[in-house]
Amino acid sequence: MSPFGHSLAAPYALDALEGAERVRFERHLEGCARCAAEVRALAEDAVRLARSTAAPAPPALRERVLSAVRTTAQEPAPARGPVPRRSGGRVRPRPLLVPFATVTAAAALVVAALFAARAHQTQEELETARDRTREIAHVLAAPDARATRGADARGRGVAVVASVSRGRAVVTLSGYGEPPGDRVRQLWLMRPGAEPRSLGLFDGDTPLIASGLSRFATSLAVTVEPGGGSDRPTSEPVVQLALESVGFGE
Predict the structure, then answer these.
(1) Nearest 5°: CA angle at 221, between 46 and 138?
(2) For the chain: N or C, fewer Cβ within 10 A?
(3) Buried b vs exposed e over 199-226: b needs ≥16 C-beta within 10 Å?
(4) Is residue 82 pLDDT above 70, yes or no?
């Protein structure tokens, strides 16, 4: 497959390929570790991001879903035939693929649950959550959406799904917990020959949507700042992630 095939990882992870194109890309996946890893990362991040934007479903809705699962007949697993051996005595492992149609269905259910009534949630909060869901979906659905991850020395991570064509990225922190005191975690865009530009403040583990990214951006950095944030970083980054692997700074 030509290099164009690599650009299909995001549409495949979001179950947006059909027919011959999907079959052709799945054949490509068998021999492309890079695409297999990118598809897995995109699918995992899509599910995590969808969950982060959703409100818990009301008890009645949850019970209806569980009841449907209990009463729905399950198809038997297909019989496994003997695995043919490859010539040369070497067995090439197949990439671990997730049933990505279920990823899309799960995301749809999560978004639907977002609109279920909750007594303690205001209409404004629902609108904000809905807007965030749309913005995240806009990035994930981009034809050039790519994912990357990084971790600090203590294993705490930052995950990014970004689109150069849309100049946006969805950034998620994991393992950091709440910052001490009244301090906040702030995201910065790093570019050669330019001052760091603030991309916003993290609200707990809620994904931060960074916009206005130019293709010359080289990295994202997270610092701990006084409450309300700072005009420029006042501390060393707790984690910094290069953006070359998602198409920026090339």
Answers:
(1) 30
(2) C
(3) beebeeeebbbbeebeeebbbbbbbbbe
(4) no
Structure tokens at 181: 């005191």
Domain boundaries, position 30: 3-70+96-140
88 pLDDT band, cuts 50/70/90, is very low
| pLDDT given for residue 50 in this prediction | 56
1 exposed, middle or buried (CB, 10 Å; 0-12, 13-18, 19+)?
Answer: middle
| pTM metric for this prediction | 0.57
Widest Cα–Cα separation across the chain: 65
Q: How far is CA 72 from the centre of its chain?
A: 31
Could you say which DSSP state residue 172 is in?
E
- 103 and 136: one domain? yes
**How many domains does one find in the chain?**
2
For 71-100, give the DSSP string: HSPPPPPPPP-PPPPPGGG-PPPPP----H
Contact 204, 178 (CB under 8 A): yes
